[in-house]
């Protein structure tokens, strides 16, 4: 569409495998240019929702950890 400004998809999903009590678990995190929170949750949908909000609201990286804390405290 001409004249439409697309917002940058600054934050993205990360995926890690960790071992807990001899069981391998997939954890999902969020990564930006200069910030990273690797093990936010084992719930991929929750992390994807957080990323969608971060990108939609164009949250500054200086506010990233406050946002993560608020979301995980819900």
Description:
- With 74 residues, the chain is α+β, with helices and mostly antiparallel strands.
- The protein contains 2 helices and 3 strands.
- A 3-stranded antiparallel β-sheet has the order 1-2-3.
- The mean pLDDT is 88.
What Rg is obtained from the alpha carbons, in whole angstroms? 14 Å
* Distance N to C terminus: 37 Å
The geometry reads as elongated
Main sheet summary: 3 strands, antiparallel
Order of helices and strands: EEEHH
Strand content: 25-35%
> Biggest sheet, strands in spatial order?
1-2-3
**What is the overall number of helices?**
2
Write the layout of secondary structure elements.
Layout: E1 12-20, E2 23-31, E3 36-41, H1 44-57, H2 64-73
Antiparallel strand pairs: 1-2, 2-3
Provide a short characterization of the protein structure:
By secondary structure, this protein is α+β, with helices and mostly antiparallel strands. The protein contains 2 helices and 3 strands.
List keywords for this structure.
74 residues; alpha+beta; 2 helices; 3 strands; 32% helix
């Amino acid at each position: 569409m001409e004249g439409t400004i697309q917002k940058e998809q600054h934050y993205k999903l990360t995926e890690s495998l960790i071992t807990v009590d001899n069981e391998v678990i997939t954890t999902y995190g969020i990564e930006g240019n200069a910030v990273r929170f690797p093990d936010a949750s084992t719930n991929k949908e929750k992390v994807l929702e957080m990323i969608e909000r971060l990108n939609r609201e164009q949250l500054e990286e200086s506010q990233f950890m406050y946002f993560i804390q608020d979301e995980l405290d819900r």
